[in-house]
Amino acid sequence: MLTLPSHADAADAPLDYWHYPTIADDVAAALDGARQAVGVSLGAGALSNLASRSPDVLDRLVLMLPAALTKPRPSASAEHVLEMSTAALNADRASLRALVAADAPEGLDDYVDDRTDALLRLGPALDAVATQIPVPDPSALMHVTAEVLVVAATGDLLHPAETARETVAAFPKATLVQFDSAAPMVTHRRELRALLVDFLGVRSAG
Questions:
Q1: For labeling, which of 18, 121, 125, 183 is most exposed (least CB within 10 Å)?
Q2: 17-29 tens-digit pLDDT
Q3: Residue 6 — φ and ψ, nearest 5°?
Q4: How many CB atoms are located within 10 Å of the residue 22 CB?
Q5: Residue ranges with strand state E in the chain
């Protein structure tokens, strides 16, 4: 498991770190011969960038909650990310929590608090990736050999379902699973775990 800078116990990222190719290079170094990978949100974008440059590096790839792929985020999503970035950069926890809570299903106060605390460290990342495109050249994905599973949420402004559909269409061998929840990693944990075990349980070809 790779923990990106400014996440969990990892050190804060350098100021100019938050570019998809840079993150993808770190992911590539961490693979160490692994032929399967799972990326969530920012990680999904980094893995997509990596696959576009090294189309046969993986046999199975899970892209969970992709936020953008070959074009910018929808404007409403980008504006929401920039609002979160402003709150985080200003250390305005109350405003950031309100923005997080607006996206979350009711009754998930612990999740909202944990998510808010995590995002407080990610103001520069949010600002940088709000308008970045992980894979500027869509044709680069046509040669990806991996089986790809795309996991989408419903009603998640940060990770629009339309981006997940675009992602499935861009990869030659991709399947979409969309959960009826804005936070499926919390509300559908058991179903999601079973889905990943089933998809990744197949022995890699490499």
A1: 121
A2: 999 999 999 999 9
A3: 70, 10
A4: 15
A5: 36-40, 60-64, 147-152, 174-178
